[in-house]
Amino acid sequence: MKEYTPRKVKKNQSLIRTLYRRAREASENAYAPYSHFCVGAALLACDGGLFTGVNVESASYGATVCAERTALVKAVSQGAREFAAIAIASRQGEAWPCGICRQMLYEFSPDMLVITGEDEEHLEVVTLSKLLPRGFRLQQ
Ligand code: THU
Questions:
Q1: Best substitution site from 37, 58, 64 to test ligand 1's pocket, by max atoms within 8 Å of Cβ?
Q2: Whose CA is nearest to atom 5 of ligand 1?
Q3: Is residue 16 classed exposed, middle or buried when 0-12, 13-18 and 19+ CB atoms within 10 A define those classes?
Q4: Domain residue limits, the chain
């Protein structure tokens, strides 16, 4: 059931803050011994499912996985396919998703909202397709 849409989330300030808070809480579990940049993400599926993720670094640096992709892979593994919003928080302030994460999120929901900011009082909310104009999609 489609309980949440990007448009509905955009109008719901308390939900936006709650998602950000969940991302911030998740960041406590970040595994970032190399960069010390601890990130948490909270991904809201359109059916109301909420999936959190953290960045998981590796001694082989290139193998590192960002918080956004951790949340996305968890969600898709559990059957979610449509997303309304993702909030991202780091203890160091705002964290916009990297290019790889933008592309992976775009695969499922180009119109989802991306929420981030310095803190709960200063959040920015932007549509993913604005962060990744003309993102790549294979014709199916
Ligand atoms: N990182 C994320 O998890 N998400 C972002 O949006 C930006 C970067 C992580 C990857 C790496 O573990 C650390 O932050 C520094 O790049």
A1: 37
A2: 97
A3: buried
A4: 6-130
